[in-house]
């Protein structure tokens, strides 16, 4: 069964600090992995999309890594800002089938 | 270029009635996905339409149904509403060509409240 597990479920950090969110998956056959940011009550917005051959991809202060061997991905947020407070969702594709992780709820405090 | 648009933004319905939610995809996107997100929970897959056909559905009862029109817009219908249907319903559409092929773009959602 295709599954995507994210950890931690929730995280509180101080503004300016770094943090790393984890995503482990058992999806086959793997097509790509996406990280989305979802503000409360809004639709998710794409941060990065990674294919099998990509190990690292950055989008501003967000850096995603992918280890296709261990089936793990991480999202690193550098110098966090209050606006980073949101849920971060990992989505893994197997062709047209998408499997969503439960998300990590991040709160950045001043 | 307009993004994925959903309507209505908010909808309040009594238990037992029907709700209809609508989604207009980004121009050129032919696939439409519907998701349910209950408060504080993750996204649950509801339905996937592509080229006017239902391609897959999630683990939801038959009172959740929908369709896709020739212009690729889509409608989600929820019949015999129950209190636990209260949720944010998100529509997403896929790019089938170009640099963002496979990328999923979400609308802002329709908040359904069942009283």
Strand content of chain A: over 45%
- Structural class by helix and strand composition of chain A: mainly beta
Radius of gyration of chain A, CA atoms, in whole angstroms: 13 Å
Q: Residue share in helices of chain A?
A: under 10%
What global shape of chain B is seen?
Answer: globular
- The sequence of SSEs of chain B as H and E is EEEEEEEEEEE
The beta-strand count of chain A equals: 11
SS strand fraction of chain B: over 45%
Largest interface: A-B, 21 and 25 residues
Summarize the structure.
The complex is a heterodimer of chains A (110) and B (115). Chain A is mainly beta.
Question: Could you characterize what this model shows?
Answer:
The complex is a heterodimer of chains A (110) and B (115). Chain A is mainly β and 110 residues long. In chain A, the strands form 2 sheets. In chain A, strands 2, 4, 5, 9, 10 and 11 form a 6-stranded mixed β-sheet that branches. Chain A has a 5-stranded antiparallel β-sheet with strand order 1-3-8-7-6, with no helix packed on it. Chain A is 0% helix and 61% strand. Chain A has strands at residues 3-7, 10-14, 19-26, 32-38, 45-51, 56-59, 62-67, 72-77, 86-94, 97-100, 104-109. The relative contact order of chain A is 0.35. In chain B, strand 5 (44-50) and strand 6 form a beta hairpin. Helices cover 0% and strands 50% of the residues of chain B. Chain B starts with a strand and ends with a strand. In chain B, the strands form 2 sheets. In chain B, strands 2, 4, 5, 6, 9, 10 and 11 form a 7-stranded mixed β-sheet that branches. Chain B is globular and about 45 Å long. With 115 residues, chain B is an all-beta fold. Chain B contains no helices and 11 strands. Classes of the chains: A mainly beta (110), B mainly beta (115). The A-B interface holds A 31-32, 34, 36, 41-46, 49, 89, 91, 93, 96-98, 100-103 and B 4, 31, 33, 35, 41-43, 45, 48, 50, 55-56, 88, 90, 92, 94, 102-109, 111.
């Amino acid at each position: 069964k295709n599954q995507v597990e994210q950890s931690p479920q929730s995280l509180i950090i101080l503004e300016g600090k770094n943090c790393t969110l984890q995503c482990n998956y058992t999806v086959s056959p793997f097509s790509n992995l996406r990280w989305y940011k979802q503000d409360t009550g809004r639709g998710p917005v794409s941060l990065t999309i990674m294919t099998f051959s990509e190990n690292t991809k950055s989008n501003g202060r967000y850096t995603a890594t992918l280890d296709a061997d261990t089936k793990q991905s991480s999202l690193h947020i550098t110098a966090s800002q209050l606006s980073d407070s949101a849920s971060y969702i990992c989505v893994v594709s197997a062709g047209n089938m998408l499997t969503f992780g439960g998300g990590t709820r991040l709160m950045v405090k001043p | 270029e307009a993004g994925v648009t959903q309507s209505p933004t908010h909808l309040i319905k009594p238990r037992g009635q029907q709700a209809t939610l609508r989604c207009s995809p980004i121009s050129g996107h032919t696939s439409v996905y519907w998701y349910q997100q209950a408060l504080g929970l993750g996204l649950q897959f509801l339905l996937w339409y592509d080229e006017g056909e239902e391609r897959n559905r999630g683990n939801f009862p038959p009172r959740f149904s929908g369709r896709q029109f020739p212009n690729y817009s889509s409608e989600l219908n929820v019949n015999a509403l129950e209190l636990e249907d209260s949720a944010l319903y998100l529509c997403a559409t896929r790019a089938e060509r170009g640099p963002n092929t496979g990328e999923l773009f979400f609308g802002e959602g329709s908040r359904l409240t069942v009283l």
